[in-house]
Each structure stands twice: as C-alpha cells, then as structure tokens.
Amino acid sequence: MPFRPVVKNPKPDGHKSETNGSAKSNTRQFTWSEIEATSTIKRKQNGNAPTYIVINDKVYDVGGDFVKWHPGGNVVLSQAGMDATGAFDVFHQEATHEIMANFYVGDLAPGQVRKQSDFFNDVTRLRQEFEAKGYYESSKLYYLFKLLFNQSMWAISIAIMIRFPTNLFAVFVSGLIMALFFQQSGWLSHDFLHNQVFKNRSLNKAVGYFTGNVCQGKLFMAWTSFSVSWWVNKHSTHHSTPNVHNADPDIDTMPILAWSEHALELFTDVDDATLAKFLVKYQPYLYFPILSFARLSWCHSSIRYVANNPNIANRFVENATLALHWIWYLGFATRYLSTFGALLWFVTSQGGCGLMLASVFSLNHNGMPVLDQQEAREHDFYALQAITGRDVLPSIAADFFTGGLNYQIEHHMFPSIPRHNFHLIKEQTLALCKKHNVPYHATTFTKGTFEVLSRLADISKTSLEMKKQK
Asked: What whole-number distance in Å separates Cα of residue 210 and Cα of residue 65?
C-alpha cells in the first residue's frame, strides 16, 4: 500500500458514493467468491472489470480509473480480491476512511464475514498502545544528525579525491566512503518515504527527494540516483506482499537468482534459459559478485521506470534530479581523476554500494519462507510480515550498517515507527508472536548470510534434480 500523501480531493470522475442517498436495505452483499474473482491475476483477462478489496468487512471497488487517481498508484492492486484491512490500517491516516467512502459498493454477506485472528486483533491493540506511548513520534534532532553525518561522508570522499587524485589507494578509499554514503542515504530516504519523520506526508516526500536526489537545499534522491516514484511503487508492493511469489518484486530476480522452487518454474519464461540455468546452478558462488551490480541495476530500473511512465507524479523533478546525480557524480570523477582513476572510483563506489545495500536487503527476507498467493491468503497481514522476515540481532554496528532494518519484523508490522524507537517495541513484538505461535526469527548478521547462501544452494540442487528428471 502507498506511502504517498493522502489526497484531499473527494473522488475522481466516474465514482459515486454508495453511502449517501442509498437505503441500508439496498446495500449490495458480496460473497468471497465474487471478491476473489477480481484478483490481479484474474482481472488481467478484463482490465475494465470491477476490482474489489475488503476493509473492515466493507467492500470497495478500486478498479477503473482508481489507480490513476490513487496517490499510491497501482500498489493497491496487490491487495485485489483480498482482505486489505491490515495493509490499509498501517499505511493510511484515519481520514482516509472518509475518502474511501466514495468507492464503497457494499458489505460482506452475513455468512461471509471472516473473524480476524486473535494475533491480528492483538497487533492492532499493540499498535494503538505504541501510538499512546509516543513511539510513532520521531526525534528531529536524530534525523538532523543523520543528514549532517551523511553529508560529511560525501564531503570527505570528494575532499580525498581532490587532494590525492593520483594516489590510487586514496582514490579507492574515496570510492568506499562514497559507497557508504550512498548506502546510508538510501536508509535515510527509506525513513522519510515511510513517513517516519514528519506528520506532514508532503514534507516527508520533499525531504525524501532531498535525501535521495541532491541535498543541501536541493533535492535528495539525486544523491543516490534512485527514482522516488520507482522506489515507492516497488517497496510499497513488497510491504504489501512480502515473499509472495509472483507478487513481491524483491524476490522477482530470475533469471539471475532463484529464491524458491516456485521461481524455477520461470525458466521457460526467460529469453535465455541456458544462461538462467547456468546462473542458478552456480548461484551460491555467484551471489556476492552479483550483489556488486545491484546498485547499477536499480539505477537502470529507475531510469526506465521514469521514461516509460509519462503519468507519474513530479515527472520533471524525477528527470531533473536523476540527471543532476550523474552530472555531479561523473563530473567530479572526470574533472579530477585520470581515466584509470575514474574507472577505479566508479567501480569501487558503485560495486561497494551494491554489496552494502543488497547484503542487507537480502538478509531481510531471502532464505525465509516463500509463499504462493494461495498460501499467503491463509495468513493475516501481520502474520505474513513476521513469517517472511528475519531480524538481525541489534548492536551499534548492526544498527548503523543496516539503517535500523535489522529490526525487520518490527518495521514490517509497524512501518511508520521511526528506526530509533525500534528497540522500544522489540520485546513486546516478540512476546506477542510467541503468545500466538507465530514464527519470529532473529539471528546474527553472519549466520543470517549463511542462511541466505544455504537457501541458494538448496534451490540450486533442486534445479539439478529437476533437470535429471526430464
């Protein structure tokens, strides 16, 4: 579900509220078979058909022009045909219920109402408790410090480059510091775009551009060269459907890496099945080299997303800040370094950042259960977040390097709580999972990495066995 600001406009054209001027007795009653028939997979056969989601036993139609109007774009379709109560609650303000009344089309029939699990209800109460305790309030001084600290890394990296342009070791160190700067800027953008810092969502997004693009009174996303629109769409969908095959874009890494037996079914869908089989066969050994290309891959995806989506919000800002990033980045390298030095700096900063970012992302969910869409429906929203997440045990080093995402389960269950408060909610979250026998996995950074490699090895072996059976 979206991280973008709630739109105040009451409704787009073509939608009328069913709650006003309509007698209660005339309210349409839905069965789950009707609702599930409009899931994203089935609606592809008829793009103009209604698309239903359920929130608190009420049915809403998010088909037609809803996606174009919706501040979060097509992320809402990840919940099509499903009970979206949990996803809606954690990512929307209370006032959004009033806006959704414009898309209300009926209720679940009395015999179709599904009682939320005890775990779901307890998490809802815990979320209200955390709000009352002020855990959703951010420390502005903390984030000011993070902004200034990040900028100091950028300044140090550039200063070393300018002062020692012919010293290859110094250029290498400068590249590593720039890689760390990119990584830490990514974590900071993540916080702002999750609306963890300010109550005003527009301000969060503005600073998200600042931290992601340029900085120092300009735009932030140009620092990291990741498109805000691309990232929000991708990351929101991930939060909505974590580790769900054919739904979560973060595990859609074929033909490069296969994270589950489900992914092996996609061999026939790739352009070069022979290459895919080679990569999967050796994926435990190719894992770290592949991660070094992660940042360049995401930069490429950002550019393609902006180029191919003319209707995205702030298109001019997206294009300008992406261009500005490469202007300053390549400008410094070509101005002060030799051709070989510039190449060394480029490879170190890009490859180093790819390793730093992707090694953390991979720990968050990879190697944890991957569910197909039917299996995912058997779990409520909060249970799905816990089952598919992996916490990395906290320490000063882990908290810094992962940007607080070592509290991955807590973050997924309470995504708007700022990272500096995660330690305050960890024990209660763990206790609640234990109470309801919901899996909660926490380990060290090193052991978690070996778990990821072990999963890759298992899938590699499975692919070889499948090949022998043919």
From this structure: 31
Q: Closest by alpha carbon to 1, among 112, 113, 56, 83?
A: 83
Sign of the torsion formed by the C-alpha atoms of 248, 250, 254 and 259: negative
3-state secondary structure (DSSP) of residue 377: coil
State how far the Cα of 13 lies from the Cα of 123, in Å rounded to an integer: 37
What does the pLDDT read at residue 311? 72
Alpha-carbon gap, residue 322 to 214, rounded angstroms:
9
Domain count along the chain: 2
User: pLDDT means per 10 residues in the chain (470 residues)?
Assistant: 40 46 70 88 60 94 83 85 92 83 92 93 97 96 94 96 98 98 92 87 72 43 66 90 93 88 66 67 92 89 82 78 86 97 97 95 95 91 98 97 98 96 98 98 98 94 72
439, 348: one domain: yes
Taking the alpha carbons of 448, 293, 323, 307 in that order, is the dihedral positive or negative? Answer: negative
Residue 287, domain extent: 116-470
Q: What is the pTM of this model?
A: 0.87
Query: How do 29-30 and 58-61 pair as beta strands?
Result: unpaired
Q: Are 404 and 433 in contact (CB under 8 A)?
A: no
Backbone angles phi, psi at 23, to 5 degrees: -70, 145
pLDDT of residue 308: 83
Is the CB of residue 391 less than 8 Å from the CB of residue 442? yes
Strand 441-443 versus strand 390-392 pairing type: parallel
- At 181, list the tokens: 């700067």
pLDDT at 404 (0 to 100): 97
Residue 317: partners with Cβ closer than 8 Å, 6 or more residues away: 209, 219
Name the amino acid, one letter, at 211: T
pLDDT of residue 117: 95
CA distance 298 to 226: 7
E strands within 56-121? 58-61, 104-108
Strands 29-30 and 104-108: parallel
CATH of the domain at 90: 3.10.120.10
139 in the same domain as 109: no
- Cα–Cα distances (Å) from 332 to 82, 158, 211, 365, in that order, read 50, 8, 19, 36
Chosen domain end from 87, 114, 141: 114
The pLDDT value recorded for residue 470 is 59
